[in-house]
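Q: Please design a sequence for this.
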């Protein structure tokens, strides 16, 4: 990222600033946009031309090694965006490398991504597959990175991706699947997990292709995780609506749980949602300034309570107001402009810490035993409630979400056990910029069966607020 001036931050400066900030905010990993050398900065690194070279914009390869090492010493993992889905046409790159179509197909129906103006690797050629697998291992081994997020996997899997009839060639069996890409992805994950156990291999895959994050020996692609772009689109669609209309779109909140266990999902609020005229996440929220920030806090809390690993793009954690611009610094000055942005930042810090310290919020993210609805049908009031469970089934966290600006007093919620339910986080707390409606630190349960549970609690639901409670 450029600094406030006319230069780029160096790897050493990034290590110092990013490491300290990520540690203070409670993040466990940082995901870097592609750091491989690229000719056009406006591509954000996604049009890679030097597959084995860290970009010179920030320093030398040795300085990038020191950058990764510095983050590791602070307990922060480093995941790289890696782009085997396409490469640019630049004459000093891989295209028409030796005067022949060596890395790409000769037939333009297989060779080109018209949408991006880039070329497609010939994954069925052993030399090309070996080149890409070797490149992935290079970044994992030489630079000690902790994993790869593989970009645009859907474009690799389908021969007819973003193509009209007559613009693509079926495979040997008459289908639309790219058999060479399938073989390459499975081999990539097998070799990467074999050589670097414990790494993260995540796929940005936007279709319903089955078993993306399942082992290859059962027919999967072998990734450890898959981005849940369906959840992201549904929830942002719900949150962007005026609260008076949300009750007619309640299924956007709940639909994701119908397929939540089919893959090991990441819940991504990524760079793609804050560019190309989409506006920032804050700009997507309806209402006045207070309501927009309250909605944003509710969105984040719902995500942290929801099964799946969490991903936020830079600036989202303090409510960046304007759309992200690769030529400008983030609007850090907003943190001094009033309580709302500081409140969002403080909430994300607390949610990260809560997520790390409460096993119920992370141990069974990919297991249906870790989640149970209390009530998902109160569409009239736009309220949902659910529990998260740890491996120890008695270790639970109750999450109650109110997606309207109306506080709800005496709202009864069923709970699985008796006792005092301590309030862990309330997104409407004054310290987050909220109105401070809540439950004075917690409530006692009553022996009143409710919503299929043996006990219940009577809560004050804050406006546009999410409350996490834990039985003691």
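A: Design:
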């Amino acid at each position: 990222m450029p600094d406030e001036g006319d230069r780029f931050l160096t790897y050493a400066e990034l290590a110092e600033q990013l490491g300290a900030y990520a540690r203070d905010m409670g993040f466990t990993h940082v995901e870097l946009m592609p750091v491989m050398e690229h000719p056009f900065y406006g591509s954000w690194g996604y049009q890679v031309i030097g597959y084995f070279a860290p970009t010179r914009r920030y320093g030398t390869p040795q300085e990038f090694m020191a950058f990764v090492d510095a983050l590791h010493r602070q307990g922060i993992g480093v995941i790289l965006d890696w782009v085997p889905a396409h490469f640019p046409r630049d004459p000093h790159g891989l295209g028409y490398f030796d005067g022949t179509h060596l890395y790409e197909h000769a037939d333009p129906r297989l060779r080109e991504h018209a949408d991006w103006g880039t070329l497609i690797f010939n994954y069925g050629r052993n030399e090309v597959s070996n080149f890409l697998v070797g490149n992935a291992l290079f970044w994992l081994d030489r630079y000690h990175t902790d994993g790869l997020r593989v970009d645009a996997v859907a474009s690799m899997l389908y021969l007819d991706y973003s193509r009209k009839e007559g613009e693509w060639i079926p495979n040997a069996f008459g289908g639309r699947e790219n058999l060479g890409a399938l073989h390459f992805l499975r081999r990539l994950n097998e070799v990467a997990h074999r050589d670097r156990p414990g790494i993260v291999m995540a796929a940005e895959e936007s279709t319903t292709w089955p078993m993306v994050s399942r082992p290859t020996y059962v027919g999967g692609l072998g990734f450890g995780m898959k981005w849940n772009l369906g959840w992201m689109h549904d929830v942002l669609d719900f949150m962007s609506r005026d609260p008076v209309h949300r009750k007619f779109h309640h299924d956007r909140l709940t639909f994701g749980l119908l397929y939540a266990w089919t893959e090991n999902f990441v819940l991504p609020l990524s760079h793609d949602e804050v560019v190309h005229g989409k506006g920032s996440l804050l700009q997507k929220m309806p209402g006045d300034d207070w309501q927009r920030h309250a909605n944003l806090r509710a969105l984040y809390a719902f995500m942290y309570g929801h099964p799946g690993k969490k991903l936020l793009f830079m600036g989202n954690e303090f409510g960046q107001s304007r759309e992200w611009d690769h030529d400008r610094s983030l609007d850090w000055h907003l943190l001094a402009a009033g309580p709302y942005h500081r409140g969002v930042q403080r909430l994300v810090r607390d949610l990260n810490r809560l997520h790390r310290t409460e096993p119920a919020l992370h141990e069974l993210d990919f297991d249906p035993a870790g989640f149970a609805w209390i009530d998902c049908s109160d569409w009239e009031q736009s309220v949902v409630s659910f529990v998260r469970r740890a491996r120890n089934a008695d270790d639970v966290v109750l999450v109650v979400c109110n997606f309207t600006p109306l506080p709800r007093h005496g709202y009864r919620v069923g709970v699985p056990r008796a006792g005092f339910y301590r309030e862990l986080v309330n997104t409407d707390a004054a310290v987050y910029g909220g109105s401070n409606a809540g439950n004075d630190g917690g409530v006692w349960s009553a022996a009143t069966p409710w919503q299929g549970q043996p006990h219940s609690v009577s809560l004050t639901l804050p406006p546009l607020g999410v409350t996490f409670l834990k039985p003691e």
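Q: Thanks. Anything notable?
A: The two ends are 45 Å apart (CA to CA). The longest strand covers residues 371-378.
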